[in-house]
Specification:
alpha+beta; three-stranded antiparallel beta sheet; two-stranded antiparallel sheet; about 25% helix; binds zinc ion
Length: about 110
């Protein structure tokens, strides 16, 4: 058996990210000027992941991910995390990744468009 192939245009309905909001201040994170990828806007933001590493399986479930608009909001989040965890967990881990940050020098050297 072989497939009979025809090229067709198909209209697909799916969930798209059209905007992002800061999990701390609630402000909308504006899209970057970098062209949209797959029709979705690209945002420059801080991804903050918190978790504890105490003994037991619940350390896996303790992972929480937040999106912050600025270093100030990322800071507020980690302060809150430490305050809320005090007395509940022995270990507090915070990872912060600056997502989609294009520093001017990097962009010039690697811009192939
Ligand atoms: Zn914010």
């Amino acid at each position: 058996m072989s497939n009979m192939i025809e090229i067709k245009n198909i209209l697909v309905t799916r969930e798209c990210i059209v905007g992002k909001k800061c999990d701390i201040c609630g402000k909308e994170i504006p899209p970057t000027v970098i062209p949209h990828r797959y029709g979705e806007p690209i945002h420059d933001y801080y991804e903050v992941t918190t978790h504890h590493d105490d003994w037991g399986n619940d350390s896996v479930e303790s992972y929480e991910r937040f999106e912050a608009c600025s270093p100030e909001c990322a800071n507020k989040l980690w302060e809150k995390y430490i305050r809320d965890s005090a007395g509940k967990t022995n270990t507090m881990y915070i990872e912060i990744e600056h997502i989609n940050c294009w520093v001017p020098d990097y962009k010039e050297e690697h811009d192939d468009g």
